[in-house]
Amino acid sequence: MARKLAVVLGGLAAPGRRTFLRAGALSLAALALPWLTRAGDPRLAVARRLRMLHVHTGERIDVTYFEGGALVPAALAEVDRFLRDFRTGDVHAIDPGVLDVVWRVAGDVGRPRETLEIVCGYRSPRTNALLRARGRAVASRSLHLEGRAIDLRVPGVPVARVRDAALALRRGGVGFYPESVFVHVDTGRVRRW
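^ thats the sequence. predicted structure below, dont judge the formating
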């Protein structure tokens, strides 16, 4: 078999079995690493903690939602309740991917331990319809309806810098609302407005 491989390789000496197996194992590890760290960034394998203040309810949360290489179900349930539709009280599962985006943005603007201000998390269909009826610029198929979007501010950081950090991630949509002083992030397709 080594001779056949040497012929295929144009006369080059075929690697030994151990070399072949080692190369295969390293290739599998290289393929698995981005999956294990969710974005290929080793920083994402560490514990992920968010401190947040909901600007409409005044509620605060300090939660580690990812630890020991896994999501923390009890912490995610707390986040779901915290990011509920504050108008109706409806609770919906929040996509951990959007939490990762918020966590990365906070770190990338130099405020990983700062209490982030949340303007909107989950939005129920009833609230979405109400806001659209009032003439607000609200998408009929907003990712807030799916728990895949968060509107936030990072105290002490210009909103344009927060926008730029979110855009640099290329992990979903980024909306810039300088008049309302917040940035929208979501886990939809990469886009900006």
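Confidence is low (pLDDT under 50) at residues 1-14, 23-39.
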